[in-house]
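Researcher: We plan to redesign the surface later, but first we want a full-length starting point. Tokens attached.
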């Protein structure tokens, strides 16, 4: 900033000097720019008086000195910025290399942002891969381990530690990219658990064939949740409306458990069974904690003899990965 001000002041004084010697403002400005930037074109007017020569020599010495200082400052700033970026990338790579049994999140969009927040709250170690520079910088500002690259490239997945990772969550808003990421991750680590996002329902089969363990369809899940909130408001208020409930939910995550509401549909495998029978058939992968009848004002506590009726909203607590067992509540799956 000082260099810019210095060059501008010297240039302004020189222009005033040339104008005082009888030059038009345009010619004076042109002469100053040619001299300060050391271009070396011919003068537009003859420098044939002592005053003009003294003024020109002063402009050469002071103006060129200012430009040299300004150029050096700019080069230093750019070089320092590049060095800091390189050192920052190296430090990030070094921290990622020390991670094991971590989670790799591909994509830091709307879903990736919420996922990272939940993982951080649960104390999980994770790495984010995001190719958009602004989103990458946002992840950095939040203190997350992240890589600014395309997650569809195998080299990038290796850099993120895919061979040491426990889970890959591919939540890029592009079905083709998620299929490719799933294929690459599965080829690099056969024991990896892969959770992939799909936009179109037809993508689910492709992702499973590519090697995904679980497929999440946000639009489908969102519609289910809205319907459950309408039909079973008491259960949802209990789960989401208080700070204590949120804290309780975080504690469950730390224990590897999750709380949710599922609907027992007509004709499903679990409809008509007792709580004890359902929990036995599911190999105790989840436990039923309450039931809400359609149109009821409150959720009901249950015991082993409570019978689940079609249309009931069932609140369950279970281990992660229990999705297969819960599907028996839905006749359509």
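Model: Full-length starting sequence:
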């Amino acid at each position: 900033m000082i260099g810019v001000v210095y060059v501008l002041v010297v240039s302004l004084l020189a222009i005033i000097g040339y104008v005082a010697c009888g030059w038009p403002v345009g010619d004076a400005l042109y002469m100053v720019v040619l001299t300060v930037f050391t271009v070396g074109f011919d003068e537009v007017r003859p420098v044939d008086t002592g005053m003009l020569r003294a003024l020109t020599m002063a402009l050469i010495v002071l103006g060129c000195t200012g430009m040299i200082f300004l150029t050096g400052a700019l080069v230093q700033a750019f070089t320092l910025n590049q060095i800091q970026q390189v050192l920052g990338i190296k430090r990030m790579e070094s921290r990622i290399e020390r991670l094991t049994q971590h989670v790799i999140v591909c994509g830091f969009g709307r879903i990736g942002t919420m996922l990272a927040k939940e993982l951080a709250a649960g104390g999980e170690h994770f790495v984010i891969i995001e190719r958009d520079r602004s989103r990458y910088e946002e992840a950095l500002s939040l203190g997350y381990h992240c890589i600014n690259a395309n997650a569809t490239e195998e080299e990038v997945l290796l850099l993120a530690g895919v061979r040491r990772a426990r889970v890959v969550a591919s939540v890029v808003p592009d079905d083709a990219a998620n299929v490719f990421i799933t294929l690459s991750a599965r080829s690099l680590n056969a024991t990896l658990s892969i959770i992939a996002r799909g936009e179109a329902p037809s993508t689910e089969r492709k992702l499973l064939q590519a090697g995904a363990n679980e497929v999440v369809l946000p639009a489908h899940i969102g519609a289910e949740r809205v319907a459950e909130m309408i039909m079973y408001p008491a259960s949802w208020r209990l789960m989401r409306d208080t700070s204590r409930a949120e804290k309780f939910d975080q504690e469950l995550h730390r224990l590897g458990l999750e709380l949710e509401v599922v609907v027992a549909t007509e004709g499903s495998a679990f409809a008509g069974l007792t709580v004890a029978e359902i929990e036995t058939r599911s190999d105790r992968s989840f436990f039923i904690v309450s039931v809400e009848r359609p149109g009821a004002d409150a959720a009901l506590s249950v015991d082993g003899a409570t019978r689940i009726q079609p249309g009931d909203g069932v609140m369950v607590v279970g281990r992660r990965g229990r999705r297969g067992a819960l599907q028996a509540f839905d006749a359509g799956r």
